[in-house]
Structure formats: C-alpha cells, structure tokens
Design a protein that fits this description.
Layout (H helix, E strand, L loop, with lengths): L23 H10 L19 H14 L10 E7 L2 E7 L4 E3 L3 E3 L6 H9 L5 E2 L2 E10 H9 L17 E6 L2 E11 L3 E4 L9 E4 L8 E10 L14 H16 L6 E5 H6 L15 E3 L8 H17 L9 E6 L6 E2 L15 E3 L1 H4 L5 H19 L4
Parallel strand pairs: 4-16, 12-13
Antiparallel strand pairs: 1-2, 2-3, 5-15, 6-11, 6-14, 7-8, 8-11, 9-10, 12-14
Bound molecules: flavin-adenine dinucleotide.
Length: 386
C-alpha cells in the first residue's frame, strides 16, 4: 500500500462526469472536512492543487486510524488466498498472510503485477479500450490570449485559462476519437512511469496555477482490434500494447527519463524539430520524430486532431508549442468484471474490484465514490455486526 496512491500526486481537479455513480457533494464535503478549501463546494471547476494534496491525504489517513483502521506502508500484495471460487485474503511480499471476510481490490490502473497475478490465478479479467497519445505544452499566455482575446496578458484578476477539445478523425477508413484530457492551466508536465525502462507523462498544477505553461493530454481512443499483435496475451493484450509504446519512448529518447518531443507544426508536417522549446518537464526533452514512437493510427489521428483544434482555437496550432510523449495511462487497459448490483466479482466470491484499475472510475471523485460503494457492498453482504 502506498500513501494515498496516484491521488496524492495528482492535480486535484475534482470535475467528474460520473454524477450517476454516487454523491459527488458528499465526497467534496469529506475533502473540505480534511483541509480542502470550501471553494470546491461551489466552484464550477473545483481544483485542489498538487501542492495541497499530501497534507489532505495525511488528514484522511488520520481519520481512518482514528476509526480503528490499520495502514501498512511499503507492503505489496503479491498473492491471493483462494479457495476454489472464493477469495479468503491476501499474501504480502514479506510472506504475511492476511485473511479477510472480503477483499476490495483497488490497486489502480498501473498495477501490472496485480493484473498478471489475476490472469495467472485465472480470476476472470477482460481487455478494455483506453486512450493514448501525448501532452501538448503551450505558454499559458498564448492560451490566455486565445481564450480571453486579450492582446498582451490576462491581467491580475482572471484565472489561468483552460480548454477542452474533441475531434472525430478518420484513419485508415475508421473513425477515431481525439480529445484533450486532464488539461492543466498554469501547470507542469511530470514523469509518471511506474517501472524502469519506460516513459509516461502526466500533468499537474499547483493550487495557484501560476506556472507559465499550459499543458494537456491529447489522446486517441484505442480498442481491442488495435491490440491484435498481443492476442496471445488474452485479457492483458491492451496492457502489453501500452507497455510497448512506453518502452519504445524510453529507448528512443536515450533510456533515461528524458522524454521524446517535437514542435507541434513540425509533428503535423512530419519534420524532426531542429530545436525544442523551454519546458516544464524537469527531466528534459529529446527531439524525435514522434511518429517513430507512436503507432501509425495514433500519429495520424493526432495530426488530424491538431489541425482541427487549430481551426477552433486560432493560434493553437503553432511551432511555439510542442508535444511530449507518451500520455498512455489515461485509464485502465484491463477491466475486472463485477456484478452491477452486488459489486462482487462475477466469479470470485468476496472479491470487490474497485476504482480506476478495475475500470470503474476515471479520476479522484469517481474513484472515491466507487470506494465507498464497494465498502458498503462488502459490509452489507459479508461483514457481520458485532
Ligand atoms: C500526475 C497525475 C495527475 C492527476 N490529476 C488528476 C486530477 O486533476 N483530477 C482527477 O480527478 N484525477 C487526476 N488523476 C487521476 C487520479 O489520481 C486517479 O484517477 C485516482 O487516484 C484513482 O484512484 P484509485 O484509488 O482507483 O487508484 P490509485 O490512486 O492509483 O491507488 C492505487 C493504490 O494501490 C496501491 N497498489 C498498487 N499495487 C499494489 C499492490 N500490489 N499491493 C498493495 N498496494 C498496491 C498503489 O500504491 C496505490 O496506493 C491524476 C493522476 C496523476 C498520476
């Protein structure tokens, strides 16, 4: 278990489209009770900020401890205790066996070891569509000028502006959704790999959103037919496809955390950039033809997407912006199927697949709501009141 998961290191944007999945307001109130500003209760686009999250997560942890919960840091689940079609507990990397009336599996979308374990134990999992692409970085001032129509800068009162873009590309005769994802005004591009030999980028912004950069994931929908090469990996096909691109990005950019990058118009024109721009990505950038990193259909869809975005936001498609790869962890490449009503795994009793890694959440708020629902479902069915 880690200290709060991806959520601790995230940006803390709290917008969610999954209002049907639970009580968003309740989650926001819990966050406020643990130190978030109460602005988030009425802001249309609530945001906590990367810098404020660690303290908030520590407060949440204290509440769990005060209620009798136990937390084990640096303790990895490496095996499941199974009895035919029932899970009885887990085994840790230290060899400790922990039995339980129910197990909520909420290990996130990057827990490849857990997906391998589920597959190996023949606990039913499925490959699922996700999205993959790059981060694009502009100066925040340029995005402000486009969005606010201000000739110089946004001035002292307006917040750093954001955008949300979508385009339906057509590649090799097939429609492909291209969309902006996790736009971070006044933010940073950050390394988000979880294993050596791979490059993964993500974005975050401090609460004041005051960096001079604006970045956003621009990603292309990928689905099972795209993973054909890994058909022999069964339900893990999408995960292998995702890993291959992350590893290629790392190898081509010099096998460190230096990320491959290309200026935006150069990418669209298929030209390697002679030089790159200043960036918020701390490990640094290597100038590469991003088409060598990304699958052909992803590059082509991105190219069409960027042209379309340039027509929607005048000035967006410019060589004063650059793309940085790869944004590959938008959502889980695996689903752990569960019963819609009981939230229990479709075959393995007492197992409750939960959160983003299982395919039931796509951000902080939806993951929190799913966590609550799974805990309530597990208690309802298996935990006897004293
Ligand atoms: C840089 C960044 C910025 C983001 N910005 C935003 C944002 O602004 N807004 C938003 O809504 N979302 C954002 N997200 C996404 C958000 O953080 C996730 O959607 C959310 O944290 C998912 O919650 P989860 O509980 O399902 O999984 P996670 O938060 O990933 O938690 C999984 C936990 O399981 C642990 N674990 C994994 N394997 C094992 C194992 N074998 N044994 C024991 N423990 C294990 C992990 O260490 C981790 O603690 C961002 C993510 C990142 C990385």
């Amino acid at each position: 278990m880690e200290k709060g998961g991806a959520g601790t290191y995230s940006d803390g944007k709290l917008y969610t489209r999954s209002k049907k999945r639970g009580d968003v307001r309740r989650i926001l109130e819990i966050l406020v009770a643990h130190g978030a500003s109460d602005d988030i209760l009425f802001d249309a686009h609530p945001h906590i900020g990367t810098n404020k999250l660690p303290k908030l997560v520590a407060e949440l942890r204290q509440t769990i401890l005060d209620a009798g919960g136990e937390i084990y840091f640096n303790t990895c689940v490496t095996d499941f205790l199974l009895d035919i079609d029932e899970i009885k507990g887990i085994v840790t990397q230290k060899g400790d066996r922990m039995t339980a009336d129910a197990v909520i599996l909420a290990t996130g979308h990057s827990a490849r070891d857990v997906f391998h374990l589920l597959h190996q134990k023949k606990i039913h999992i499925e490959a699922k569509p996700f999205a993959l692409g790059v981060r694009v970085e502009h100066s925040q001032n340029l995005i402000d000028q486009i969005q606010y129509h201000c000739p110089i800068n946004r001035g002292p009162y307006l917040p750093a502006s954001s955008y949300s873009l979508v385009h339906q590309a057509k590649v090799n005769g097939q429609e492909r959704g291209v969309f902006s994802f996790c736009m971070c005004p006044g933010g940073f591009i950050v390394p988000a790999a979880t294993a050596p030999g791979e490059i993964v980028v993500n974005g975050m912004s401090p609460s004041r959103r005051d960096s001079k950069f604006a970045n956003s994931g621009i990603v292309v929908a990928v689905a099972e037919p795209d993973f054909k090469k890994y058909l022999d990996k069964g339900a893990l096909a999408g995960m292998f496809f995702q890993a291959e691109i992350e590893q290629k990005a790392c190898a081509l950019a010099g096998s460190t955390q230096t990320a491959p990058a290309q200026r935006l118009i150069d990418f669209v024109n298929g030209k390697v950039s002679n030089s790159l721009l200043e960036t918020s990505y701390q490990p640094g950038l290597a100038s590469l033809d991003m088409r060598a990193v990304l699958p052909q259909f992803v590059s082509e869809a991105l190219k069409q997407g960027f042209k379309n975005f340039g027509s929607k936001m005048k000035g967006y498609l410019t060589n004063d912006a650059q793309i940085v790869g790869v944004e590959s962890r938008t959502s889980s490449p695996v689903r752990i199927p569960r019963n819609n009503e009981t939230l229990e795994h479709v075959q393995t009793k007492r197992l409750f697949p939960c959160g983003e890694g299982a395919g039931y959440a796509g951000g902080i708020v939806s993951a929190a709501m799913d966590g609550e629902r799974c805990a309530e479902a597990a208690v309802r069915k298996y935990i006897k009141a004293n």
